[in-house]
Amino acid sequence: MNEEAPSFKSQLLGHLPSLRAFARSLSGSADRADDLVQDTLMKAWSKQSSFEPGTNLRAWLFTILRNEFLTQARKQGREQSSGDPSYADGLAVLPEQPSSLDLKDLRAALKQLPEDQREAIVLVGALGMSYEEAAEICGCALGTLKSRVNRARSRLCDLMQVGNGAEFGPESEITGIATAQAPI
């Protein structure tokens, strides 16, 4: 092993929470998100020699995760499903806290967005990435990313029947997605 492996490992571990949140937003399932993050970390670890030290590790990891998600989605589209996945969703007990209900409504609304808009709004709003970093991860122009975020916010407010993000609870996951401010 070379001397960079421990610092590379610690850097990977530092990005786990953000990777998991992004994977959860893409997959809609905690179990699938965990599998997606694990696949991402395995690919990153096996390809660490291709990572250029000093460049943006976070963007590199998010790109790997996004590509892995898209690969799995294409593969799943070719496979036959064995059962109704909505059945398991119906077994969950609804939370009693209003903010938890808001978050559940937000997740449901996010699922109704086109994939490119959902990806953009989660990167910028929920994970707090800059527009530039999110555009790099999505592989699109900065203006395109900003447009996707704006359309996603508008559509989410329509779907959730709210005027703006101030009508949500104080949770950063919700207000970050629903408000028009993002890190620059």
Q: SSE layout and pairings?
A:
Elements: H1 4-14, H2 16-27, H3 30-46, H4 57-78, H5 85-90, H6 98-112, H7 115-126, H8 131-138, H9 142-160, H10 172-178
Helix pairs in contact: 2-3, 2-4, 2-7, 3-4, 4-8, 6-9, 7-8, 7-9, 7-10, 8-9
Fill in the keyword field for this structure:
184 residues, mainly alpha, Rna Polymerase Sigma Factor, Chain: A, Arc Repressor Mutant, subunit A, transcription, sigma factor, RNA polymerase sigma factor, WH-like_DNA-bd_sf
Structure characterization notes:
It comes from Pseudovibrio exalbescens. This protein has 184 residues and is mainly α. The protein has two domains: 70 residues, Rna Polymerase Sigma Factor, Chain: A (Orthogonal Bundle), CATH 1.10.1740; 82 residues, Winged helix-like DNA-binding domain superfamily/Winged helix DNA-binding domain (Arc Repressor Mutant, subunit A, Orthogonal Bundle), CATH 1.10.10. Helix content is 70%, strand content 0%. It contains ten helices and no strands. The longest helix is centred in the middle third of the chain and has 22 residues. The termini are far apart. 28% of the residues are buried. The C terminus is likely disordered.
